[in-house]
């Protein structure tokens, strides 16, 4: 391997330390509510680790776990109640929701001032318009990681593969906000390999295990791998699985200047940025000054 390994865990620990220091400087304690519907094991793990990280940062964590057969109306009522609760600063509805619940209907009652996931129409609109607002956590994490390698992204050629509302589309807009020249690729993109080879910064958010091969990467590029895919791992024993990214790490690491591992890259940044957003949301809603070092960017 010739590439530097971008240590998302260590960088996220730095963001979390900044958040904890900021929380101490606030005149009150922010609270983050996380709503989980159903018993999906991966979502349960995410919700528990978000709750733990919230408390570790000195904030209050409210976990609301609802059964899988919760009706859309009942969930909407819970989210609306959290939206109007003055003691709650951030609300995260863990996705995906069970199939009988329409995600958009639930997000419609979430107060945009508390939208720490940056998923409401109001937050998305502010991002497109370049107005201040809460930005989606995973894409913010991608930009922070890229900037550890290249602090000034102006003029950089960034290729984002994937155009989901959660990751790809906001990532493209956030890199654009940094004055990068952005190409947003997706499943209908032609000559994807050649397009990727033009990238100074290649962001993969596809959900296809190790799709990006070494010869897709420009020598000296920075590779940010958002993908987390569970695949069979017979080498670990029968029926065992492991997590891999959307990038073939071993191949890409021979060509890139720097690369995030997956797991251990973007994932830890998502939680760190969620905590950061909770502080920003609390400050905006309660009229508090954002403490340094969270006041920049
Ligand atoms: P998604 O909603 O399934 O979107 C995938 C995107 O990839 C779509 O835009 C799709 O294009 C595109 N795509 C699919 N196959 C393609 C192909 N062969 N060539 C080019 N583009 C292709 O997924 P997501 O929610 O954005 O998540 C992407 C990955 O990131 C997943 O592995 C997910 O687990 C991971 N993730 C990680 C974190 C974290 O914190 N680490 C957070 C969120 C997601 P079309 O639009 O044309 O269909």
Features:
6-stranded parallel beta sheet, 297 residues, Rossmann fold, alpha/beta, single chain, binds NADP nicotinamide-adenine-dinucleotide phosphate
Please count the beta strands (DSSP E, at least 2 residues each).
11
Kindly report the name of the CATH homologous superfamily of the largest domain: NAD(P)-binding Rossmann-like Domain
**Largest sheet: spatial strand order:** 1-11-8-7-5-6
So what's the oligomer here? single chain
Q: Helical stretch count? A: 10
Q: Which distinct ligands sit in these coordinates?
A: NADP nicotinamide-adenine-dinucleotide phosphate
One letter per element, helices H and strands E, the order comes to EHEHEHEHHHEHEHEEEEHEH
What is the mean predicted local confidence, pLDDT? 97
Q: Which stretches are poorly predicted, pLDDT < 50 over at least 5 residues?
A: none
What kind of sheet is the major sheet?
6 strands, parallel
Q: What features would you describe in this structure?
A:
- By secondary structure, the chain is of the alpha/beta class.
- The chain has 2 domains: 26-112, Rossmann fold (3-Layer(aba) Sandwich), CATH 3.40.50; 137-268, NAD(P)-binding Rossmann-like Domain (Rossmann fold, 3-Layer(aba) Sandwich), CATH 3.40.50.720.
- It has helices at residues 8-25, 41-56, 72-84, 103-107, 121-129, 137-149, 168-177, 192-197, 249-253, 266-286, and strands spanning 4-5, 31-37, 60-66, 90-93, 157-161, 181-185, 201-204, 222-225, 229-232, 241-244, 258-259.
- A 6-stranded parallel sheet has the order 1-11-8-7-5-6.
- Helix 1 packs parallel to helix 10 (266-286), helix 2 (41-56) crosses helix 10 (266-286) and helix 6 packs across helix 10.
- The mean pLDDT is 97.
- NADP nicotinamide-adenine-dinucleotide phosphate is lined by residues 138, 161-164, 166-168, 185-189, 192, 205-208, 226-229, 246, 266-267, 270.
């Amino acid at each position: 391997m010739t590439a530097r390994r971008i240590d998302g865990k260590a960088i996220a620990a730095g963001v979390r330390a900044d958040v904890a220091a900021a929380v101490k400087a606030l005149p009150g304690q922010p609270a983050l509510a996380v709503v989980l519907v159903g018993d999906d094991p991966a979502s349960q793990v995410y919700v528990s680790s978000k709750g733990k990280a919230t408390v570790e940062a000195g904030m209050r964590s409210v976990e609301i776990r609802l059964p899988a057969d919760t009706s859309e109306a009942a969930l909407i009522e819970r989210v609306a109640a959290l939206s109007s609760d003055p003691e709650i600063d951030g609300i995260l509805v863990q996705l995906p929701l069970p199939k009988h619940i329409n995600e958009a209907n639930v997000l419609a009652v979430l107060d945009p001032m508390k939208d720490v996931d940056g998923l409401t129409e109001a937050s998305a609109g502010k991002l497109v318009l370049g107005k201040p607002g809460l930005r989606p956590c995973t894409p913010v994490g991608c930009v922070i990681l890229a900037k550890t390698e290249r602090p000034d992204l102006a003029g950089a050629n960034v290729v984002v593969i994937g155009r989901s509302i959660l990751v790809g589309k906001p990532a493209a807009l956030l890199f654009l906000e940094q004055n990068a020249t952005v190409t947003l690729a997706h499943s209908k993109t032609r000559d994807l390999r050649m397009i990727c080879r033009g990238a100074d910064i290649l962001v993969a958010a596809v959900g296809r295990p190790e799709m990006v091969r070494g010869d897709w990467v420009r020598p000296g590029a920075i590779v940010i791998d958002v993908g987390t895919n569970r695949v069979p791992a017979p080498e670990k024993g029968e029926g065992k699985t492991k997590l891999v990214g959307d990038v073939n790490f071993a191949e890409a690491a021979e060509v890139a200047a720097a690369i995030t591992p997956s797991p251990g890259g973007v994932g830890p940044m998502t939680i760190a940025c969620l905590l950061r957003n909770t502080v920003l949301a609390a400050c905006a809603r309660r009229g508090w000054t954002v403490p340094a070092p969270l006041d920049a960017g």
